[in-house]
Write a structure and sequence with these properties.
globular, 12 helices, Bact_exopeptidase_dim_dom (chains A, B), about 20% strand, five-stranded antiparallel beta sheet, homodimer, alpha+beta, binds N-(aminocarbonyl)-beta-alanine, nine-stranded mixed beta sheet
């Protein structure tokens, strides 16, 4: 049995690093706060008897020996970077639930047959650096280490420099080479980040897979001019041209409801002065869908909308895809193990599809994978008021423990 | 006859302070670059034999004695702050054309009967601090000194602190007290900042008045949430709610064409993360109209649009008016003097209404006022590529000289 109080205390201690006045956490990937959180994790994992390894993209792997070193590790983990207005649980829960599993096995002197491994993946949020789920993406070969290291934040700082600055550019190769040891299995515990479990009164979400995603950067270039003397019909207003496109992102997703999502989360207007007609507008698009054909329809519809604005001729539009992965189904056998563990404890549970991307989505390309969801308050995440109940977090951790134990053998 | 080369050389020298790589000027109000430009002006005005005075909002007045000290001064001037992507001529031309008038009179040993006065008004652009045309607004009593000093920029720095930091919080009272000496007349030379003169092939714009303006701050508050798991119909997306309002700003102005302008120049999205639904969006509205009733119709239409979004109930909208002044007609007698001076030199000229606000609009509340426009390249202003032809600038300066001389007497 895992220790609910110890799990909660660890969550609260980690949440102090980057704590915000409104009760959330702002701990952007590869910031100094990220370093502090990583240092704390490394200390805790060391105290739990793990061997630590850091790879070239900054992923941290804490290994606990098994009785049969020839077997591939049964792994778990998540991320500890957060959104700018993030909460205490997104990602952090998956890492600390994994740590609680190891501590519980230590308490009871349990040795598993296969080794266990606890992972902290770099830059899952994708808020400061794109691509999102960067550490697990490099690991799984979704994109190259070089591509990831060259990514820059809005201030022009590269992943390479930021990793170096916080001292987490490790020596281990980041991408899983052909024939390299793969995990025997990967589990990730996470808050749901949506309203489904709370709505149905379930405590455990048995995650059968995740939505596919397509992300884009859009830049519209018009001509800045004085807001006073410039007649309406002579304007090349990049913002007014952008409005129907931003609107289309929402419309396109609604047309595919309830299977799709579409979000413009980030906008920048240049020169951003009250009495100057905007000469340039940049914004992001985040599309998600339960199936890949739907995602392709959304892509086509967005390109149509862009072509329409282009055809108008007054403002140039540049559309750059920056993230794409298809919907990812998880491993049925491992998913069954999660479902069975929940049932064994009489925990109300249901199958669920993840709306968020998770490191597990990329790791699933390299090893059988499953996820455990627990409810979060009002389904709210990526918000400082993100919250979860200690008993739900404990239940998810217990399910994680049992699914891992069953997979690793004892 | 004014000296075209000296005028051009002064413009180019001033444009070096805050020069941008793309050939423009970024010299925000009350920045250290503004201080450097002010210091240069103070030196030049001193060398031209003027007595200098700085008031409590930082306006600079350079006086040249007349033969009859009992007469009110005939004044001219403009501003030397710029937009973030500003040009070399907006404002600067009006100040340096005034300086060239004084230098020319010095060259020829001309004493006017009434004193002459050359003004540099603080924060005309309104880009860093609102209200716009701040120095002349306080002078004319459009709003109080206290109100202006309390205004803060996006970083929270107040006008009071910024004025103090650059050493231009002067001792002279800023607001024109009842019974205080008013100007006998005020002239302002300025680039047109629009396409009309270039289009008609005219060199001098005889400005009969300026558009009225209404500016607003709009804030929409929804709820930030994760872009993945949050279904479309449960969202409280502040950006999607803002889109029809921003669109309305443009539509409302087009409905009043060709008499109106409507611009959203500044937008801020919170928390501005790709995969977080925006919880808050702030933007500005800039409405202009040739007549006050039209401006009132635009105000009503905007409030209707806001009410419609409010009624939807998912996102709260706050609309705050921040600037209002009615259309300002200039003094017919002075306007005639500008027209006559242009005609005397055979300069192609036409009557024109200013789309931009100018310090002259506020000064006109306290003294007979007129303006002289010269064309700018492609009608472009509030843009680093703003440009004007030396011979046009010289022609405008000559007209200014003659209109001032005729008014001040010799
Ligand atoms: N779980 C999570 O917040 N992931 C961030 C990537 C995404 O936006 O899906
Ligand atoms: N002339 C000028 O650019 N004034 C700024 C105020 C306005 O936006 O009209």
């Amino acid at each position: 049995r895992i220790d609910p109080d110890r799990l909660w205390a660890s969550l609260m201690a980690l949440a102090e690093i980057g704590a915000t006045p409104r009760g959330g956490v702002c701990r952007l990937a590869l910031s100094d706060l990220d370093r502090q959180a990583r240092d704390l994790f490394v200390r805790w994992a060391g105290e739990a008897g793990c061997t630590l390894r850091v790879d070239a993209i900054g992923n941290i792997f804490a290994q606990r020996e098994g009785t049969d070193p020839s077997l591939p590790a049964v792994a778990t983990g998540s991320h500890i970077d957060t959104q700018p207005t993030g909460g205490k649980f997104d990602g952090n829960y998956g890492v600390l639930a994994g740590l609680e599993v190891l501590r519980t096995l230590n308490d009871h002197g349990v040795r598993t047959v296969a080794p266990l491994e606890l992972c902290v993946w770099t830059n899952e949020e994708g808020s400061r650096f794109v691509p999102v789920m960067m550490g697990s993406g490099v690991y799984a070969g979704a994109f190259s280490l070089e591509h990831a290291l060259a990514a820059t934040d809005r201030e022009g700082v590269s992943v390479r420099d930021a990793l170096g600055a916080i001292g987490y550019a490790g020596a281990a190769p980041a991408a899983l080479a052909d024939g390299a040891p793969r995990f025997g299995a990967f589990f990730e515990a996470h808050i749901e980040q949506g309203p489904v479990l709370e709505d149905s009164g379930d405590v455990i979400g048995v995650v059968t897979g995740a939505l596919g995603q397509r992300w884009y950067d859009v830049v519209l270039t018009g001509m800045e001019a004085h807001a006073g003397p410039t007649p309406m019909d002579l304007r090349r207003d990049a913002l007014q041209a952008a409005l129907p496109l931003m609107q289309a992102v929402d419309d396109i997703a609604r047309a595919e409801a309830p299977h799709a999502r579409g979000t413009v989360g980030w906008v920048q207007v240049f020169p951003n002065s009250r009495n100057t007609i905007p000469g340039r507008v940049s914004f992001t698009v985040d599309f998600r869908h339960t199936d890949d054909a739907g995602l392709a329809r959304m892509d086509a519809a967005l390109r149509d909308a862009v072509a329409k604005v282009q055809a108008n001729g007054r403002v140039a539009v540049d559309l750059q895809p920056v993230v794409y992965f298809p919907p990812a189904p998880f491993d049925p056998a491992l998913v069954d193990r999660v479902r069975a563990a929940a049932a064994r404890h009489g925990l109300p549970h249901r199958d669920i599809v993840s709306g968020a991307g998770h490191d597990a989505v990329y790791v699933a390309r390299t090893a059988p994978t499953a996820m455990v969801f627990v409810p979060c308050k009002d389904g709210i995440s990526h918000n400082e008021i993100e919250d979860a109940r200690p008993e739900h977090l404990a239940a998810g951790c217990q399910v994680l423990l049992e699914a891992m134990l069953e997979t690793a053998g004892r």
